Amino acid sequence: MIADLSAADLDSLLARARADYDAFRAKGLKLDMTRGKPAPEQLDLAEGMLALPGNRDHLSEAGEDARNYGGLQGLAETRALFARTLGASPDRIVVGDNSSLALMHDSLVYALLKGVPGSAKPWGREPDVAFLCPTPGYDRHFAICEEYGVRMIPVPLTGDGPDMDKVEELVRDPAVKGMWNVPKYANPSGDVYSDETIRRLARMTTAAPDFRLFWDNAYVLHHLTDDGREILNVLDACAEAGHPDRAFVFASTSKMTLAGAGLAFFASSPANVAWLLASASKRTIGPDKLNQLRHVRFLKDHDGLVAHMAKHKALLAPKFAAVDEALEARLAGTGAARWTKPEGGYFISVDVVEGTASRVVQLAKDAGLLLTGAGATWPKGKDPRDQNLRLAPSFPSLSDVKAASEGIAICILLAAAEAESAKRKDAA
Ligand code: PMP
Fold first, then answer.
1. Mutation to probe ligand 1, out of 254, 263, 346 (largest number of atoms < 8 A from CB)
2. Which Pfam family is one of this chain's hits (predicted)?
3. ipTM exceeding 0.90?
4. Can you give the pTM of this predicted structure?
5. Model confidence over 101-130: pLDDT tens digits?
6. 129 to 77, 121, 144, 150, 214: CA distances (angstroms)
7. Structural domains in the chain?
């Protein structure tokens, strides 16, 4: 542990860390570990889709012309293909266009402007609207809240979901209308919500009668291990607990097929589906049904989807292993960082020495290595401990991930040694 080193040993660690950093910087690399984008090889897995449906294949099973307007809820066969993944029957699924984030954004905006089933008035007419934000979390969720003036209340994650004692206490405030959740392989913590966490979320008493769980199951099939994790069906749990309208489930094929040209989904109770469609019908005459047909032709059925996801795993798992190896090799036993070993998803979350995350990002940047900004995983971009970093190893090549991870470890160690040295100087 760095904190236990003698003054002389700390000086020599600092000198060594600086030398390693200078050598890394001298390589003049250009590396980017900022965003959870699929790599080109992953997109290539779905290259066959670009020729589909093709061959004058434009009719749905029900005989609808997928080239034309209409079909707001999505083709029946597309909803059936994803029903198991979403944990909802096809009649409780809406297929949107390519972005689930857009569906989340629109759901919140509709709630603010019009309210949701069970609202006494639009959320936007309440004096104060707040969302619980399990933290570290997804920066784009927080950005939606910030954009529309929704107050964000951070709640710590425990490894199997949010601290439920805290959540149950906070929802006694009627201003708390919603909560963000990435229930499986969370971005970036890798949390997988336990059955008990999901039951408590479904059952808890909320002061707001129109409280909603924004259940972003973005990584539902995105396993990194052979035996992927299953979580409890939140729609069923809410219905069993007497709160059938509590959860809005979101997902997409952004990281299954094509990140910029996938399908997004909303799944919920009949009342919530009718509510979304009512507003959606003012926004659009219908979604891109050719893309829905393309997905059905390419993936075929649930087993086809699962088989496709195994190909992603084969490309991604070595990259995650490379990050872990590099961090382990340089940081094990130093006390300079703790990091997650996710079983799925797209991110590794690293907690560095308190107060050094920004320094690590700056050191990395100066050496040609781009990291997600420190604080990005917290509401309004402000990590009160300046401690959390999000690593996204999916996009760079395996050799770049190896080089970047070594660089990250070097920066973390240097920042930790600098901080310890400064602390001792202050104390002296
Ligand atoms: N939710 C989470 C948790 C994500 O990490 C991401 C992508 N990084 C998204 C949603 C974006 O989804 P989509 O492409 O469907 O808009």
1. 254
2. Asp_aminotransf
3. yes
4. 0.97
5. 999 999 999 999 999 999 999 999 999 999
6. 38, 12, 13, 5, 15
7. 2-33+306-427 (3.90.1150.10), 60-299 (3.40.640.10)
